Amino acid sequence: MKCLSGSIKNAVQLFKQKQISPLEVCEAALRRQETISRLNAYIPNAVVETTKSEALLSSQRYEKGTPLSPLDGIPIALKDNFCTAGIRTTCGSNMLKNYVPIFSATVAERLQKAGTILMGKTNLDEFAMGSGTVDSIFGPVKNIHRSGLCYKFIDTSGEAIHTSAMKPTGGLEKDDFYITGGSSGGSAVAVAAASAFLATGSDTGGSVRNPASFCGVVGLKPSYGVVPRHGLISLVNSMDVPGLFARTVDDVAAMLAVISGLDPKDSTSVPSNMKTFELPESPSIEGLVVGIPKEYHRPGMSSEIIDVWTMIADLLENKGAKVREVSLPHTKYSIVCYSILNPCEVASNFTRYTGVEYGQRMNSSQSMEAMYALTRSQGLNNVVRSRILAGNYFLLEENKEKYFKQALKVRRLICQDFNKVWSEKVNLLLTPVTLSASLRYSEFIKYDNRSQTATQDICTQSANMAGLPAVSIPISLNDEGLPLALQLMAPMGKDVEMLSAAKWIEQQVGYPKLRVIDT
Amino acid sequence: MLTLKQRWLSGLWKKYQSLPLRCLISTSISKGKQSKVPQYPVDPLITDEICESDTKIDIELVQHLEKLSLVDFANKEGLLRLQAAISLADQLRAVNTEGVEPMYSVLEDRSITLAEDEVLIGNISDDILGCAKETLEDYFVVPPGNIDYIPEDSYYEKLKDDKT
Fold it and tell me: Where in the cell is it found (chain B) (predicted)?
């Protein structure tokens, strides 16, 4: 079904003209989920039973001409760290393997009220800790690119002349595969393969933008607080944001309109006016000041990433934007800073997993403490346990000043760098998202989770430190047929302006559409 | 070994010319003007600037942290991971933060909306208790508390052995 890999606007138009019904699209999306099942994008056995009946209800609403919102009938997926009432929510962990929440995350609730159809929960690194989506109790998620599944690239019409049809699409040898990036890899694949139009992720250090860039979809990290966190299972409270995946910038914008806005249940949510907005048909970049933070050319960055960065910067400059080199001298410390703040907040947040009130419980007659310890050893993987320990080390009375407080001070320095750039009238920053295109699984697992996160989040983490909006936009395919992407960042609250510029870039580059061939 | 800059000079432009997107740029910026994107790394890796950390972890510290965290390291690998995490964190000590205030939240400069002091959801104690594995009447059930968790005797011996 063509409509499945098209835009939301197109699908909704077809719904309204009664050329196709939400139920039919839902059935096609379920078939697609079946086709891509070996990519492991969805949590197994979590197929939402109500999916078809919800789709039927949506079909009836269109029959009556009373759709609930511009997203009514659209198939979506939720990362499995968003609580869904009555639907198992695992965080990819043994600890919550059988946990069925009694409430839904605000984001899930808003999407449901808008009439979207929940197709399933997506796989992730355990408790969203990772940058590869390889550390889940359900196994790693595989990138659709070069997975061995049948797909082709279709060039979008427009000025850009791609040669995407000639890019390799065949599978890798010896069961190897390309990673999706992470930690929201399942959501990125779900959207890239068109088993859903939209998916949520969560972004604490780059967990949405990183997989978006490896999978060739748009990934938005909104400004901190714009999209409520209530019901998103916490990793690092002061940096977590629900993130958005879609295949086009317009679709991301449509989703942002639905899920943004103040939530009384989340004390860190902020009022915003993104409920009703539409990006301009043909956005302009005339007079826009775009900063190129020079420090983002990191040692070890692949030349193809530098190439697309250079090309888009030059393109912006040639088409009327003012492009300037700027300096963010403390960004290079953001990863180290994060390597302290993350474990500190984790050590505190994860005290809730005791096995007493919910989740896995290992019994011990010895003592309550022994029961806790056994439960946590069984329930949490090495990565999570290591972070809890490291966090408690950094928070020891004698270490607090040296590590935790020092990291919080460096956090301020990182934020001040950004503020200085914004005060110099810079509207946006253009940077790479990752050091390279996706990596082979066999390469990726040579290093442990901690060092991978330290390497992979290098261009994305600082936006979380400062609460800024940032978006990953696919630009082109490399010779291996893998996506290359760039990132835009903007001042806090300027999400819409940033998306407008992202749409301009999207229109210019005409990134090819990936079309899965159902078997 | 070629330096990064030499690598750039030799390889980059060839590749740059051949990429399909090249056609997007009608008038090349490189004519007379240079791209604003730096073509070689500007900043060194911070590990190049700072010497290795000297923090050492002993068994007493391990025991203390395990007690606080209610988890175990269980093996040498876990110890090494903690050591590595501390070494990485030590790099931050080199940053001059004199006179800088710690930043706890990015919302520090605005008022946060407070919720009204009213009950929005109620009468769900059965649902909440339903999530627990062991309950009695309206209570969660746990074994006797305030007893330090003591791993089996051989545990720390094994950790010491692993270390050597």
Answer: Mitochondrion
